[in-house]
Each structure stands twice: as C-alpha cells, then as structure tokens.
Design a protein that fits this description.
It is a single chain. It is built from 8 helices and 9 strands. The chain is α/β, with parallel strands linked by helices. The strands form 2 sheets. It has a 7-stranded parallel sheet with strand order 3-2-1-4-5-6-9, with helices on both faces. The chain binds NADP nicotinamide-adenine-dinucleotide phosphate. The site of NADP nicotinamide-adenine-dinucleotide phosphate has 32 residues, from helix 1 and strand 2.
Amino acid sequence: MNRFQDKKVVITGGTSGIGLATAKRVVAEGGQALVTGRDEARLAEVNEIDGVTAIANDSADPAAADALRAAVDEVFGGSVDGVFLNAGLGAFQPIQALESEEFDRQFGVNVRGPLLQLRALEPAVADGGAVVLNTSIVNDVGMPGAGIYAATKGAVRSAMKVFSNELAARQIRVNAVSPGPIETGFFSATGLSEEEIQGFAEQILDQVPLGRFGSADEIASATAFLLSDDASFVTGTELVVDGGMS
Ligand SMILES: NC(=O)c1ccc[n+]([C@@H]2O[C@H](COP(=O)([O-])OP(=O)(O)OC[C@H]3O[C@@H](n4cnc5c(N)ncnc54)[C@H](OP(=O)(O)O)[C@@H]3O)[C@@H](O)[C@H]2O)c1
C-alpha cells in the first residue's frame, strides 16, 4: 500500500511508542513525517530515519504551537495533508490525592496542547486533509485513579467532535483513535515504580478479552487508516482499538 505517497504528515510525540510507529507507517507508504518530542537523544535517533524530520517542541508550552507551525512552513513549505495530535501523558491519583499542579500538567499537555496546535496548524492543512487526535479508553471505562487523565481524554474527544464540524466545509476530516492498553513508554512516564506497573498491567490484562496488551503498530494501523483516503467518509468518530477492553 502507498496511501501516503507524496503526503506530508505532522505527528506530535513522534519519537517513541504510538507516534513513532505511525511516522514509520507514513514513510513506509510513501509519505514524509515531521515529528515532535523533547528528549534530545531520541530526537537525534529518529532524525536518522529516512523521510522523518524530528524537532524539539514541548506540547506543554503554549508558545510551542506557533513554533510547530513555523517548522511546518520550513520543512513542508507551509502545507500538510495529515496531523496526528498524539503527544500526551497520564498519571494516576485517587480522589483524595488529586493535586492542582497535576491537573494543570495533564490538561496542559493533553488538552491545551492539541487545541492550540490545531489552531496553529489548521490554516496549513490542505483541503481534504485529515486530523487525528489520540484519546484513550480511559474516557469511557471509569478506571479508578484516572480522574484527571480520563477527564483530559474526554475533553479531547468532545473537542474532536466540534472540530469535525468546524472543518467539514474544507472537507478536512477530524477523528480520534482511542487505544486500550498498549506496550509503550507510556507507563514508565506515569511515575509508577516497575513493581507497581507490573501489578497494574496484571490487573488490566484480566479485563482485556483478547488477553494481551496491544502494540504501538496496531494503533498506527488504525491511525493510518483514519489519516488516509481509506477513511474518506469518516469524520467525527472515535475509533476504539482496545482488544475488547471497553
Ligand atoms: N500506551 C497506552 O497504553 C495508551 C493508551 C491510551 C492512550 N495512549 C495515548 O497515546 C499517546 C502516546 O503515548 P505512547 O503510549 O505512545 O507513549 P510513549 O511511548 O511514552 O510516547 C510519548 C511520546 O510523546 C512525547 N511527549 C511526551 N510529552 C511530550 C510533550 N510535552 N511535548 C512533546 N512531546 C511529548 C514523547 O517524547 P519525549 O518524552 O521526548 O517528549 C514520546 O515521543 C498519549 O497521548 C497517550 O495518552 C496511550
């Protein structure tokens, strides 16, 4: 398949996990990817991949949205066909441990980030292009401890529906991919210890009918579908990819 032949795609959080797998898919199918991240070593490594340009751009920083647009102008000549707003993080606290700083941190990256990025990038998205936001099944399953994280992803899901209507006049499709538990660096970034992650993973596994974690590649497949013309009549939809968990 060459669904991304000569297509240009921006992917936030594209130096690891789901974002990186999606960038590799875009390139494998003939396209070019501009990806963001923060860790310099990972950025340098990903920059070595043919067809991928990796830049430092922190989704927590509101000013970084305009910097991302400037990079699109420089790298892609001011026009993109696809945008995958994927960078995100999660941390878990039960009600009595909720903290204002944690609320700001997660909402800053997971909600304000993609909203400002879309504001900055939308004029560069070609008519007929596609936008995909990364949500999570936490917005639907009532996972204890995920109050803030789930709220961020629910907010993104709602915003996706709005944007799908706002951009429909330009034939730009806006959808979300909603992963279940996926084997990536996500869990190391939660602040949980290795032992806690192991316990958490075992607990989750019991709830997945397919009996395993998904891979980043499996989310990349769904995202590539939504970004491509294969999904030409799909907009305003959240595509759940969770082994049946939700
Ligand atoms: N893994 C799961 O089970 C799962 C389930 C549902 C939803 N998701 C969602 O999937 C998305 C991607 O996560 P992943 O699982 O692929 O995790 P991952 O392997 O940790 O990848 C996260 C990527 O985002 C980048 N990133 C993190 N914070 C960033 C920031 N402030 N600005 C720019 N880039 C940033 C990371 O690079 P740097 O650290 O270098 O910045 C990395 O490239 C997230 O939105 C997450 O909520 C994951």
